[in-house]
Amino acid sequence: MSESRAYELLKWPKQVDKYQFHPKETALHLSRAFSLFASEAQQLRNAYSKLQEKCLGVNEELTKYTSELNRLTAYFNTIVKNISQGLLFIQLDGTLQLINEAAQKYLHLKAEEVLLKKIDSILPPDVFGFSMKEALAFGLAPKIVYKTYKERTLEISPSFLYEGVKSQHGLMILLKDISEIEQLQRTLERNERLGKLGEMVATVAHEIRNPLGGMRGYASLLFRDLQNAPHLQEMAHFVIEGTKNLETLVTTVLQYARPVQMKIQPVELGHFFRQLIKFVKVDPAFPDHVQLQLHIPFASLVAFIDPEAFKSALLNLIFNAIQAMPTGGLVRITLLQRETSCQIEISDTGIGMDEDEIKRLFSPFYTTKQKGNGLGLVEVQKIVQAHLGSIDVRSQPGRGSTFTITLPLKR
Question: pTM value?
Answer without folding.
Answer: 0.49
